[in-house]
Fold this protein.
Amino acid sequence: MHWIDAVLNPSILTRITEALKKSGARMTKKRAQILTAIGSFSRPVSAEEIRQQAGLPNSDLVTVYRNLEAFEAIQVLQRIPMESGAQLFELTEPGAHYHHLICRVCHQAERLDICVGAEVEDQASTRGYTGVTHLLEVYGVCGACARAAC
Ligand SMILES: [Zn+2]
Ligand SMILES: [Zn+2]
């Protein structure tokens, strides 16, 4: 499934609401505004972009981060680290995670159809590690940006 199909699918918001309820958290007005804001983009976005899109004041950036952490904790939001150290966020189906191909010029990010998780995590558990997670993001210059530079 491609990323854009996933975010525009309204059933995702319903499922995220259910996951929040199950975790004991409430769907507040601000949470709904933040979720709708993230879902309205067709690409992963920064916390600042989310704040602006949600129509929240500057002073609410901390609140945005706190809510993003809450969504991350119930595994409906994925944090995408950029090479620069900046972070982008995207909604996912509950419990799903993705790896991305990210353009370092325009910051477009596409989901990859592969996950190296099982192999890597097998090695970790063989070595006695528990609670293992993994991150894999691939950076490059997309075709459009490469052509624009010519
Ligand atoms: Zn690009
Ligand atoms: Zn993976």
Q: What stands out?
A: Residues 97, 99, 115, 117, 134 surround zinc ion (ligand 2) (CB under 6 Å). The first helix runs from residue 3 to 8.
